[in-house]
């Protein structure tokens, strides 16, 4: 519940409501079917006071218990439809994807900061299709991704070295590894050891993306009419923050792109997605250049913070579930031995480790409410009206924690995906739906798998003891369109002297 909403915001919202009153009245009489059920709407402001500001998937799940698989709320005439089951999401977003593949206009992240030019927030249409195609060619299949496996293997090995040297900085090492892989694949640029300026820039830009796209952190994302409120009035302050973020983002899009062009002129460019797209281009028109530049930025923007929580989850889960760790290590030892690190070629022989990767995707839901879709025309679903322009929110977190689908949903149990009757594959929902399904999923899966296999091959991960006391870490998902983990402590030590030799070996 939104208990802390300020009076100032309510004033701004009242202002905005004037803009939607006429629209709401005009529409009210033209619809036939009812909207899906949901919490009672107040006159004009609708459910403004019900919209959660934090961990919205928890409130959405409470609503699911009361109102069912599909719930509707509206705020000042803007409709939000929440889908609480995989079936509802498949039926609407996959089967009718021609109607449900648009994105809502996110005033702050999209319009002001500029992310609307990336595939993540692009409206459905020509430009969107062109960017998705480029993405698919670059990293959309196991075949295309396999060109980049050596980069993933090298950066993951570097990660092991950093963790060995400074285990308490685990978060920082994971972030760096994810960024290094993406920057290398996208631009052919190898991050310098220490504080690389491109890394700082990329981190600032993606932190801003996560915040500015969280639909309920900035109310303008829910109430577009707030865009008419000047920056100096309550409710308009996001404009100043947005202008600062826009500068950072502009640099992230242009600086590495110009660097690739320069390297290509000098004949020193490493192969990368950007250099390949530029190579294949006969005439670099301003339109084509914009297209390449933004496709590259989408690749970085979509992937930067997303694999990170999954890899960190490995360390938390292993500290909490030592039996799972032992089983995975036994499997890795039996298949690979202790004389080399695991690689992608071992993957098909590691069923338990693969099940562990799936359980990570389920247990810690990285994108708990996906990226929201928007309906391009009116539709009727199960007798309910889904109005044109409604924001469609798949509650992926609940789909992956529904006890009817995954018994003991808060327990970490890779076994659920093994045996004759495995539970549903979390990859069917955790990467989203229809024509908007995550185009980076092959890379994400490859990165998480290799981090798990390599880390488990060489490290023991346990609870930390401090001052004679054992600290049991807690799993908590933080608010954000990409949900990070609440910081926790664990102990990470090499499994043996031979493991240490492997970590120290030359890359
Ligand atoms: C564990 C890792 C990841 C998860 C859980 C994840 C999940 C998602 C989800 C749920 C969506 C929204 C899909 C929808 O709208 O229905 C999405 C979109 C997207 N993801 Fe990922 N993702 C991950 C990693 C990556 C990586 C590594 C990249 C890039 C290399 C990437 C690039 C993108 C892009 C560009 C979009 C926007 C697609 C569009 O709007 O058409 N993601 N992702």
Properties at a glance:
507 residues; 50% helix; disordered N terminus; 4-stranded mixed beta sheet; alpha+beta; binds protoporphyrin IX containing FE; two-stranded antiparallel ribbon
Write structural notes for this entry.
- Pathway: Secondary metabolite biosynthesis.
- Keywords: Heme, Iron, Metal-binding, Monooxygenase, Oxidoreductase.
- Its cofactor is heme.
- It comes from Cyclocybe aegerita.
- GO terms for molecular function: heme binding; iron ion binding; monooxygenase activity; oxidoreductase activity, acting on paired donors, with incorporation or reduction of molecular oxygen.
- The protein is of the alpha+beta class.
- Helix content is 50%, strand content 7%.
- It has 19 helices and ten strands.
- The protein has helices at residues 7-28, 56-67, 86-94, 107-113, 126-139, 142-146, 149-165, 170-187, 197-213, 238-266, 273-279, 286-303, 307-320, 322-336, 351-363, 396-399, 427-430, 441-458, 497-504; strands spanning 70-75, 78-83, 373-374, 379-381, 384-386, 391-394, 459-462, 464-466, 469-471, 491-494.
- The strands form four sheets. A four-stranded mixed sheet has the order 1-2-6-3. A two-stranded antiparallel ribbon has the order 4-5. The protein has a two-stranded antiparallel ribbon with strand order 7-10.
- Helix 5 packs across helix 12, helix 8 (170-187) runs antiparallel to helix 12 (286-303) and helix 9 (197-213) packs antiparallel against helix 10.
- It is globular.
- The termini are far apart.
- 47% of the residues are buried.
- Residues 1-26 have low confidence and may be disordered.
- The site of protoporphyrin IX containing FE has 26 residues, from helix 12, helix 13 and helix 18.
